[in-house]
User: Which sequence fits this backbone?
C-alpha cells in the first residue's frame, strides 16, 4: 500500500518577518523665530512672476508632508501673496510674483496662528527667476531655538529611531536568510536549511516564524523528536502575539506528522484537527494526511474516522474513500469460510472506483472486492473467495 501525504505549505511560506516603523516627532508647535516681526517688505510692481520650490524636513530629517508654505510681504500668513502645500516627500513648488518676501512653513490648521514651524530670512525674488527655498529643521540655527523640553524629546525620539533602524537592518538580513533557508529546503539540502533556520531563531527568538521554519526542516529531515518542541514553541509565540491562522495551521500539521511518526497518534490526530480548524480551506488535505498516518501507524479506527472527516470536507476526492476502505478492510472477519467486510468498507471502495475508475489503486480495489465476493462497479461480476 503506497500512499503519499499531500503538502499544504504555500500559504505559510509567504510569511516574512515584519520591520518596525520609525517614529516621527511632532515639533510643529515650536520652530524658529516668529515670522511676525513687523518689518514691512516691498513687492515689485508690474505683476511679473517667478517660480519657487523647495523641501521641508523636521529635526529628525523626516519630511513635513501636507504642510503649508506662504510667501508673505510682512512675515505673516495674512499678507500672503502665494501659498503652496508640501507633498508626501515634503516638496513644494509653484509661481510667485516677483518681489521680496519671507517664506513661512506652517501647519494647515495651527492651534496658534501666531507661531509657525519655520521661516526664512527676507528673500529677494527676481522676475522670471527659479528660486529654491528649503526649510531644514536639522540646521543648527533651528535647533538652537528649541526649548530644553523640546530638545530632550528630540533626543529621545532619535535614540528610539536609531534602535528601530538597527532592528530593521537585522530583520532585512534575517528575511534574506529566510529565503535562502526555504530555497535550501526546496532543493533538499535539509542540513543547510536547518542551520539557517536555527540562525533565524537566534536572531529573532520572539518570532514564531523562525521556530516554525526550523520545525518544518526537521520534520522533512525525519528528525521528529527534535521538531516537536520547536513547533510547539512556534504555536505558543503565535498564540501569545498577533495570531496568524496560516502559521498556526502549518505548525499544527507539521506537529501532527511528527507526533504520528513518534507513535503519539492521539496527539497527532488532535494537531491535524487543529490545523483544519485554523485553516478550513485546507481541511481536506489535513484530514487526508491524518488518515494516511493513522493507517500507517496501525490504527484503523482513527484512520477511518479521519478519512470520514476528509470526505466531509471534499466528497469528490477519491483517495479519501480508498484510505477509508483500507482502514475498514483490516477489521474484516471470516464466517464459514466467507470474508465479511465491516459496514462501510465495500461502499468506500465502490465510491473510489466511481470517482477514479482508472486510478492508481483501481486494480487493487477491484481485486479486493472480487476477493471478498462483492460486486465490482462497472463489471456486474462477483467472485467468491475460495
Assistant:
Amino acid at each position: 500500500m503506497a500512499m503519499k501525504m499531500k503538502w499544504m505549505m504555500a500559504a505559510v511560506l509567504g510569511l516574512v518577518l515584519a520591520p518596525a516603523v520609525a517614529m516621527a516627532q511632532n515639533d510643529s508647535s515650536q520652530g524658529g523665530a516668529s515670522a511676525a516681526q513687523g518689518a514691512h517688505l516691498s513687492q515689485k510692481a508690474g505683476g511679473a512672476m517667478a517660480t519657487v520650490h523647495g523641501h521641508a524636513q523636521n529635526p529628525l530629517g523626516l519630511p513635513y508632508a501636507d504642510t503649508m508654505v506662504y510667501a508673505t510681504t510682512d512675515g505673516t500668513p495674512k499678507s500672503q501673496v502665494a501659498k503652496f502645500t508640501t507633498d508626501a516627500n515634503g516638496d513644494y513648488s509653484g509661481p510667485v510674483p516677483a518681489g521680496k518676501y519671507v517664506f513661512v512653513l506652517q501647519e494647515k490648521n495651527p492651534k496658534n496662528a501666531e507661531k509657525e514651524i519655520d521661516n526664512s530670512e527676507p528673500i529677494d525674488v527676481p522676475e522670471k527667476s527659479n528660486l529654491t527655498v528649503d526649510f531644514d529643521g536639522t540646521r543648527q540655527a533651528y535647533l538652537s531655538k528649541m526649548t530644553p523640553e523640546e530638545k530632550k524629546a528630540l533626543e529621545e525620539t532619535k535614540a528610539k529611531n536609531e534602535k528601530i533602524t538597527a532592528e530593521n537592518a537585522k530583520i532585512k538580513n534575517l528575511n534574506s536568510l529566510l529565503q535562502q533557508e526555504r530555497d535550501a529546503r526546496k532543493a533538499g539540502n535539509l542540513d543547510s536549511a536547518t542551520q539557517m533556520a536555527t540562525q533565524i531563531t537566534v536572531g529573532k527568538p520572539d518570532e514564531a516564524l523562525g521556530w516554525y521554519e526550523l520545525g518544518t526542516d526537521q520534520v522533512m529531515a525525519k528528525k521528529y523528536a527534535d521538531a516537536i518542541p520547536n513547533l510547539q514553541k512556534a504555536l505558543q509565540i503565535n498564540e501569545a502575539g498577533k495570531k496568524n491562522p496560516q502559521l498556526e495551521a502549518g505548525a499544527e500539521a507539521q506537529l501532527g506528522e511528527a507526533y504520528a511518526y513518534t507513535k503519539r497518534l492521539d496527539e497527532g490526530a488532535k494537531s491535524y484537527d487543529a490545523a483544519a480548524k485554523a485553516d478550513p480551506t485546507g481541511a481536506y488535505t489535513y484530514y487526508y494526511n491524518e488518515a494516511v498516518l493513522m493507517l500507517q501507524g496501525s490504527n484503523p479506527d482513527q484512520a477511518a474516522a479521519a478519512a470520514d472527516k476528509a470526505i466531509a470536507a471534499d466528497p469528490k476526492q477519491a483517495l479519501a474513500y480508498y484510505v477509508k476502505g483500507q482502514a475498514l478492510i483490516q477489521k474484516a472477519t471470516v464466517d464459514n469460510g466467507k470474508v465479511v467486510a465491516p459496514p462501510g468498507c465495500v461502499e468506500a471502495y465502490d465510491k473510489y472506483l466511481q470517482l477514479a475508475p482508472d486510478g492508481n489503486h483501481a486494480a487493487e480495489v477491484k481485486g479486493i472486492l472480487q476477493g471478498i465476493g462483492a460486486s465490482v462497479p462497472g463489471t456486474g461480476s462477483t467472485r467468491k473467495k475460495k
Q: What stands out?
A: Residues 316-386 form one domain. The chain is about 45% helix and 15% strand. The chain has a mean pLDDT of 85.
